[in-house]
Design a protein that fits this description.
Elements: H1 22-42, E1 47-52, H2 56-72, E2 75-76, E3 84-89, H3 94-113, E4 118-123, H4 129-138, E5 144-146, H5 154-163, E6 168-170, E7 191-195, E8 197-198, H6 209-213, E9 217-218, H7 221-233, E10 238-242, H8 259-267, E11 274-278, H9 287-295, E12 302-304, H10 312-317, H11 324-337, E13 342-349, H12 356-369, E14 373-378, H13 396-419, E15 425-433, E16 440-445, E17 450-454, E18 463-471, E19 475-482
This protein binds S-adenosyl-L-homocysteine (SAH), iron/sulfur cluster and FE3-S4 cluster (F3S).
């Protein structure tokens, strides 16, 4: 992880080093000269706004991007009326993709009035050739476009965008090296995401992620442990281990290591009190992992286990490589070993060829498992994926109808499950002041449920015992019982 580097010590008059991350420090130092010149001229430092649009992994990438901008000398900004705006995009569903163009158009109008501003785009959407083509043709005001594989080159790319007239476009087809030790700026002081792997090899037939994130690569365990040890020293009490399929962690390392074994190592790190992870693919969920979770004092009582469909026929077409029975048996094992575990999921409605019978199979699993919560998605056709070529795309009105039925069921069950815990006391990590009511703070239970309690910002980052006084469906109101927990 990043150690404060004195950028002033770097000889920017020399040629850039070849080696990473030294090369990036060199470009940070060079960009910083420009930023200082800006400050001299304008009497203020320039501002930078990084907008994250995707999943947890994109959010973690955004922290890295913010860290680099920070090291260069930009002041962080929430508003897009900034001197540097960067969209870190997602393309997992079509609507995420469409929103970017609309937002970018507005930003273009703003830039007309502020010609010095810089606009940059990165993330998964940029890995698609048709997106880059459209930007190149219709959004000439964009300064910089780069992809997911060369994110670590950000400082160098900013330098190019600062010094070159033309739009800078640099998108790589294949994954580059894993570069450690770059700066980052964490959103929360007390909790942090930690990448344990990148990319995905599963090629679920509907999903674009393997195409835009490249092949699965695991980080070396010693790099992960070193990063978490430093985070712990820095006051972090909760880590979220991130990967598209954490259950296959370590399979391709020179010295293979299982995810369960990695968790055992993380458990030993002093100062870390809560461990979360996401996402688990059912096909790779091992008995060893369930055992480690059951024995652990730190791993949170929550498993996000995407179902996608309850129909074995559809699961096969989705290339998920498990069936309905296997999924149900995993849930049974999890609940037997960890009775208080919350199980959440992702479900797709309207996959090509999905019949009413298939949909009823999904409803059946939902009713049998009784998920604590579920993200439900309408199938979105992603060009380049096998499912986009499949026949019998389901009519829109049928999809909508099924989707509404599913959503109601998921919400009804989720509320019933939440009600079961009302009145009891649980440790809660207080995360932030409540956005609507400043007399409240908001925290999370080990099972990931949200609770609002009366209290001040001094509680943020602490784990306190909270009595859940009232269940409001998918969140609770509570009262602090004991402030001295930690
Ligand atoms: N790696 C994770 C999922 C990452 S994408 C896993 O395998 O569980 C997050 C969720 O988006 C998926 O679980 C899926 O439910 C949804 N999703 C992915 N592609 C989609 C598509 N083409 N249409 C609709 N939903 C999709
Ligand atoms: Fe997509 Fe499947 Fe990989 Fe998840 S496991 S990212 S759904 S291909
Ligand atoms: Fe989206 Fe990329 Fe994540 S497509 S879901 S931001 S890996």
């Amino acid at each position: 992880m990043y150690q404060e580097i004195d950028l002033d010590q770097i000889e920017v008059a020399l040629e850039p080093p070849e080696k990473e991350p030294e090369r990036e420090y060199y470009f940070m130092a060079k960009c910083r000269e420009r930023v200082r010149a800006f400050a001299q001229k304008n009497g203020r430092f320039p501002t930078a706004c990084v907008v994250n649009m995707g999943c947890q992994m994109n959010a973690r990438d955004s922290e890295k991007l913010r860290g680099i901008l920070n090291a260069i000398g930009y002041m962080p900004a929430e508003s897009e009326e900034a001197d540097f705006v960067l969209y870190n995009t997602c393309t997992v569903r079509e609507n995420a993709n469409n929103k970017v163009y609309g937002r970018l158009g507005k930003l273009g109008h703003y830039k007309k009035k502020h010609p010095g501003m810089m606009i940059a785009l990165c993330g998964c959407m940029m890995q698609e050739a048709h997106v880059v083509k459209r930007l190149r043709e219709q959004y000439r005001f964009v300064n910089l476009v780069f992809g997911t594989h060369n994110l670590y080159k950000f400082a160098e790319l900013v330098w190019r965008a600062m010094t070159e007239e033309d739009m800078v476009i640099d998108v790589w087809e294949d994954a580059g090296e894993i570069v450690e030790d770059l700066p980052l700026r964490r959103k929360y002081s007390f909790k942090s995401g930690v990448n344990i792997m990148f990319g995905c090899d599963n090629f679920c037939s509907y999903c674009i992620v393997p195409y835009v994130r490249g092949r699965e690569r695991s980080r070396e365990p010693r790099d992960i442990i070193r990063e978490i040890e430093r985070l712990a020293k820095d006051g972090v009490v909760e880590v979220m281990l991130l990967g598209q399929n954490v259950n296959s962690y370590g399979k391709n390392l020179a010295e293979p290591m299982s995810f369960a074994a990695l968790l055992r190592e993380v458990e030993k790190i002093e100062g870390i009190r809560r461990i979360r992870f996401m996402t688990s693919h059912p096909k790779d969920l091992s008995d060893e992992l369930i055992e480690v979770m059951a024995q652990s004092k730190k791993i949170c009582r929550h498993m996000h286990l995407p179902l996608q469909s309850g129909s074995s026929r559809i699961l096969k077409a989705m290339n998920r490589r498990y069936d309905k029975e296997h999924y149900l048996s995993l849930v049974e094992k999890l609940r037997a070993a960890i009775p208080d575990i919350a199980i959440t999921t992702d479900i797709i409605v309207g996959f090509p060829g999905e019949t009413r019978e298939d949909f009823f199979e999904t409803l059946d699993v939902v009713r049998r498992v009784r998920f604590d919560s579920a993200f439900t998605f309408i199938y979105s056709k992603r060009s380049g994926t096998p499912a986009a070529e499949m026949e019998h795309q389901v009519p829109e009105d049928e999809v909508k109808e099924n989707f509404d039925v599913l959503l109601k069921e998921v919400q009804r069950i989720g509320a019933e499950k939440a009600e079961e815990l009302a009145g009891r006391v649980f440790p809660v990590l207080i995360e932030q002041q409540n956005e609507q009511d400043a007399s409240l703070v908001t925290g999370r239970l080990s099972n990931n449920s949200v609770v609002h309690v009366p209290g001040g910002v001094s509680l943020v980052g602490k784990i306190v015992d909270v009595r859940l006084t009232e269940c409001k469906g998918f969140y609770y109101l509570g009262q602090i019982e004991d402030e001295n927990v930690g």
